[in-house]
Amino acid sequence: MKRRTFLSTTAALGALSLGLPGLAQAQEPLKVGFIYVGPVGDMGWSYQHEQGRQAIEAEFGDRVQTTYMESVPEGPDAERALTQLALAGNSLIFATSFGYMDAVMNVAAKFPNVKFEHATGYKRAENVATYDARFYEGRAIQGTIAGRMTKTNKIGYIGSFPIPEVVQGINAAFIHARKVNPAVEMKVVWAYTWFDPAKEADAAAALIAEGCDVVMQHTDSTAPQAKAQEAGNVITFGQASDMSAFAPMPRVGSTIDDWAPYYIERVGKMLDGTWTSDATWGGIGSGMVGIGEITSAVPAEVKAEALAMADAIGKGEYHPFTGPLNKQDGTPWLAAGETPDDGQLAGLDFYVEGITAELPK
Amino acid sequence: MIHLERRRAASRFWTLAVPVVAVLATMLAGAGLFAALGKPPAEALRMIFWDPLLGPNAEYFRGQLLVKAGPLILIACGLAVGFRAGIWNIGAEGQYIVGALSGAAVALALWPAESPLIFPTMVLAGALGGWAWAMIPAFLKTRFGTSEILVSLMLVYVAQNLLAYMAFGPMKNPQGFGFPGSRNLQQYPSAHNAELIAGSGLHWGVVAALLAVIGTHLLMSRHLLGFRIRVAGEAPRAARFAGVSPARLIRFCLGLSGALAGVAGMFEVAGPSGQITDSFNANYGFTAIIVAFLGRLNPWGILAAGLLMALTYIGGDLAQLMLGLPAAAIQAFQGMLLFFLLAFDLLTQYRIRWKGART
């Protein structure tokens, strides 16, 4: 029945721009839609967003009805998927990949009554909010553990793409590794993918062959973990999800994207009518970034040091980018005690002093 | 015992019937797959094949059908001409990327100037880019006898890396806060391949696809060159005796399919996609190969096959959304279509005989 009315109201295409008719009906559960860039079984990025969706269902039960579409490519397909979700009556839609940004803006303009949440983007509108996590906070802790534990003094880093989010992570890891171990060097391999087990395994193998005994990854598969396990004496950190299957060695810690608290909060705001377009950038403090269990392979004093830092970051007492810090070319970036504002971090496109690798431009 | 007996000539009946049988077989096997996943099979099939055309909100989906089918048809028409001549361009995906890059390069270089000449120049650049990329395997084949199948396929990966390089480097939006991806051409009026009628899905790329269908039809059935192409494919030796130059034919077929793929990429980047990003290519170049065969390498067949393929994409999304079918099930469903097509194709060349071997 509802479908019928739906059909007639959208009979003319112009009606698309009028937004959603079905919304006014009370008693109906709030419909929440998700699009994922990967399969829900990727055990990394999309998997964590799916965990967040399930948390919404668990929290609100009958009051919400959620659907998702997985493996939606960025570009026109995303625009169609978002339109389909909006046409199907979803009034809150989470678009969980950076590349969905322009598609979200286009569809949001056509459905002013539908609220959109775009992960990791920077474009907002009345009905488009953005959210992102301060992954670099987790990297600072990884850097500390890595700097203390490396024997070859070579840390490998598998980069996905040279974008600010990834550059923040490399810098944060390096700064904190150097802090506890001045002899540390950082090697970066760019995989140019977010999820490609074969490429990630190659990258890890190359880094291990170069003598790295720590491999960090900003890609989402567990392939580098498996490579490190084969090598035996290499440590790694879980990325996006906990990857605890590889604990206690090689995985000694992790950076977990925990979207559940944010998703529950935003759905709650939709339910009580207080949703507004915001830009959220959560970290360890708000629970959006988790550091997983630091395993027994890490010496107790190192673990204590890492946990103390996580605690300080979470309380806002310590910022992972605290001056004095120079840019890679030696020019000053932050004076002693200075911290960057979020705008500066969001556009970070240079390495800090001491990293010898070259950042692709 | 089942025996296969070669037919003296390909069966005309089966040539036309195979695609229909393959689609029906895919539906049946797909229904089994969906049922095994615990989803109602009839409803899933209705959502894939019926709802996008005549179900709720079909006005929107019919337009999207054109958007999705346009590039497939455009690319498949070019490929079919080559396939008829026995020239196997498997790298349309790469030519599509390079065409898009060339078209976008024109627009990005001229931004923010406005002129009615910009869009036609982009179309030309797109065609030229795709053509040039296809000329690499053509040159290597005519000069060194390399396989155009391997070379054109490998060049797809080269093109993908070129695309990533462009999205992160020279073509990156200077106002994009360091994030990858070019300016959005949808926001550049002179370069925007907009819908010709708002909401219809009809853009210049769809028009070009229809022209390509007509053009291919005229070429293959009314033109001497089309005759030569068919002869070259069916009887290469005879073609050579008739004075057909294999090298010229290779250059023509690869060049034509490359140019059409390039134009398709250009229309896509200037229209529905809008942006050069590292994930801009959406496998149109590979899917078009299925479309070409499903359409029996015939332009009108390709038109129907392109629309059918687009339907499985859009309906597949719908089934995923409404029934919670996993994306992989939809992909497997699409794959089955090619599988059954190739399997049943046997019937055009062979007939099945039942023989009581041991009586």
UniProtKB/TrEMBL annotation, chain A:
Organism the protein comes from: Phaeovulum vinaykumarii
PROSITE patterns tied to this protein: TAT (PS51318)
Keyword Hydrolase carried by entry: no
Name used for this protein in its record: Nucleoside-binding protein
Domain ABC transporter substrate-binding protein PnrA-like: 31-305
One Pfam family linked to the record: Bmp
Domain of life: Bacteria
Cellular component GO terms, alphabetical: plasma membrane
Keyword annotations from UniProtKB, A to Z: Signal
Keyword Ion transport part of the UniProt annotation: no
Signal peptide: 1-26
InterPro entries from the UniProt entry: ABC-Purine-Binding (IPR052910), PnrA-like (IPR003760), TAT_signal (IPR006311)
TrEMBL record, chain B:
Alphabetical UniProt keywords: Cell membrane, Membrane, Transmembrane, Transmembrane helix
Transmembrane segments: 12-37, 69-87, 94-111, 117-140, 149-168, 202-220, 249-267, 329-348
Pfam families: BPD_transp_2 (PF02653)
Membrane topology per record: Multi-pass membrane protein
Any GO molecular function: transmembrane transporter activity
InterPro entries assigned: ABC_transp_permease
Subcellular location: Cell membrane
Main location per the UniProt record: membrane
PANTHER family associated with the record: ABC TRANSPORTER, PERMEASE PROTEIN (PTHR47089), GUANOSINE ABC TRANSPORTER PERMEASE PROTEIN NUPP (PTHR47089:SF1)
Protein name: Nucleoside ABC transporter membrane protein
